[in-house]
Amino acid sequence: MSPRRPSTLPPDGGAPPHHPPRHPPPDAAHAAVTGITALGGLVLLLALLGGFLGADLFALEREVNAPGARLLTQAEVLEDGPVSPSLPAAAPAASAPGWRSAVLPDNWDGRRPGYTGQVWYRLPLPAASPGERRAVYLPAVGMNAEFWLNGQRLGSPGRLTQQVSRHFYTPQLMELPAANSRTPDTLLLRVVGHPGYRCGLAPVWVGPYDPLYDAWRRRQAWQSDGTLVTIVFNLAIAVYVLLIAWRERSHSAYAWFGAAALVWGLRNLNYVVTDPPVPDLLWAELCVSGAAWFTGLFAIFALRFAEAELPGYRGPRWLPPLAGLYMVGATVHFLSADSYARANGAFALLAFIGISLTIWTQWRLLWLAWQLRRAELTAVGCAALTYLVLLLHDYRIGIDTTTLGEVFLRQYAALPLFVAIAATLARRYLQALARERQFNAQLQSEVEAQRTQLERSFAQLREVERAVEGERAREQERSRLMGDLHDGLGLHLVTALRQAHHRDTPREAVAATLQDCLDDLRVAIDSLDAHERDPLALLGTLRWRMAPRFESLGLRLDWDVACDLPTLPALDAADALQLLRIVQEALTNALKHSGARVVTLGLQHDGVAACISVRDNGSGWEPTQVAPGRGLGQMHARARRIGAVLGVIASPGQGSLVRLRLAPPPVSDTGAQTLYPTPSGANPS
């Protein structure tokens, strides 16, 4: 992780996006948001405390307070040039040319600007008691250091050859071998660094191991462990807010804040990653570009956030283009630089733009908190002010080329700012969910009411339709019946009337015509009976009505019905009348013209459809020698109307057979007939 570099890191600033809801959320959600806001306030307070105490807590001259511990501020320095491909086999001799005295801290950016390579530091150690456990503690050294004692190499925490491990923000502790005598020892430190990273060596602590370890652990917790915690926290907030942004795409502030938090968390890896997966220069350029992107994204978020919180407010239209130009321009400049010197060329201008955007951003959040004066926005405003103060604190450290060892605090300042803004966004999101649930409940209630009203209207409409259909059916039935009576009964009555007017007409002829009138009337009445419309009932009633007429003329009307006849479907009134007319005509023809003694009315089932037959034992006729009459033609026409097939078989001296095969019942989707089941073993064809 890298502190703010004086010449490489442009300042950044900013914060996240969102739109808080207007209506209070449910109690549980409100309690959760209040808890998050309280936590943000607590973290903010801790960050403020840490910021104010940091100067004293990590003051190098007071960092260790233990007997025997000494702070070394004088050293001899030897500049040894570029880093060699391999580690030296021996340390430089005390008599080597180039050694000169120096006061620690030795900040390369101030004393040797642009220097890249290695520098040796020689520090005489105070005498120690034999067997005493002692250590050397380096609060700040960059980029990496190698420890030598009395000409013997003790080790290093990382690589010293290209590419060098990035320990510029990592405190280092090295335990020394136990002293064998009271003779002073000589400590040599080989330091390797790059320009623009506050490389060099801060004052060195030497003394008993335990107090130095405590001091190292405390600084390690603040500089490395704590920073890593903030990174994880920032990335978690970023993922959380981006998920909300993906769901609530109408609120652009969510996405801007989530993107800013994500970039900020990734950018802060500069403080903790010691061996990046890319070249050191590229890694530094990506981290600086990330700072610029965070500044620009957070500035756009602050604008959208204020517009969402204050209906009617419209911020400066030039801000998003300026922020975008700043982000792209900084990225292009740094990634195109092929050296640290070129990368630092535009630092002053980019730093000015970054600080200006950050000041505008934090001022906008403070202004918003003052305008609305809500608890969570007040927390956001306080966190923004804290971030701005600690940004300037870190910037002051970054441009100071005379000191080393200060603790950067801006990464901690961003955490309460992010928590406060995330709580505000969560509150708005929970309120939006509450409004959505309320709206859905209201909509469901309205839909249910509309459904009930529609059902009532449909029921009324069905009643009207049934009434209209009933009236239409009655009208059609009246028209059909009137037409049938006109063609049948009316014709017989006219015939009877003519016969009555002629005195020479036999009474038997008039009586027969009147009997036909009665038969026609009874057939029409039978077809109207809604409870007796299946073929078996219709034929049975017709036989019962016509049997007396046959008996009066000395003929027998037999009844032949199959014993295994299945249940036959009922016919409507029109089809029932057509069926009765066909059978009536066949019976009347047999009665009047066949000369038969026995007429048989039959009803069978051929496995597919019902078959009605009228058979007589009369004289028969030759079909080819008899001209088709009006009666037979009407029978065929009536059969076609009901979808039936009419067949007539006759031969001289053999009687006649009229056979009517009704239409088969409809077939279901499975291919089975639904009304006329086929008897077992029957062939439906």
Summarize the structure.
With 685 residues, this protein is α+β, with helices and mostly antiparallel strands. The chain has helices at 27-57, 108-111, 209-247, 252-267, 280-309, 319-336, 340-343, 347-372, 375-399, 410-487, 489-501, 507-527, 535-552, 573-593, 630-641, and strands spanning 70-72, 74-79, 100-103, 106-107, 117-124, 134-138, 141-142, 144-149, 152-155, 172-176, 186-193, 200-201, 204-208, 556-561, 598-605, 610-616, 645-650, 656-661. The chain contains 15 helices and 18 strands.
Instruction: Please report the total strand number as a whole number.
Output: 18
Contiguous low-pLDDT stretches (5 residues minimum) are 1-27, 672-685
Mean pLDDT: 80
Helix content: 40-55%
Q: Quickly count the helices.
A: 15
Give, in spatial order, the strands making up the sheet with the most strands.
Answer: 3-2-5-11-8-9
Distance from first to last alpha carbon = 92 Å
Strand content: 5-15%
Instruction: Tell me the major beta sheet.
Output: 6 strands, antiparallel
Provide an overview of this structure.
- This protein has helices at 27-57, 108-111, 209-247, 252-267, 280-309, 319-336, 340-343, 347-372, 375-399, 410-487, 489-501, 507-527, 535-552, 573-593, 630-641; strands at 70-72, 74-79, 100-103, 106-107, 117-124, 134-138, 141-142, 144-149, 152-155, 172-176, 186-193, 200-201, 204-208, 556-561, 598-605, 610-616, 645-650, 656-661.
- The protein is an alpha+beta fold and 685 residues long.
- The radius of gyration is 55 Å and the shape is rod-shaped.
- Helix content is 52%, strand content 14%.
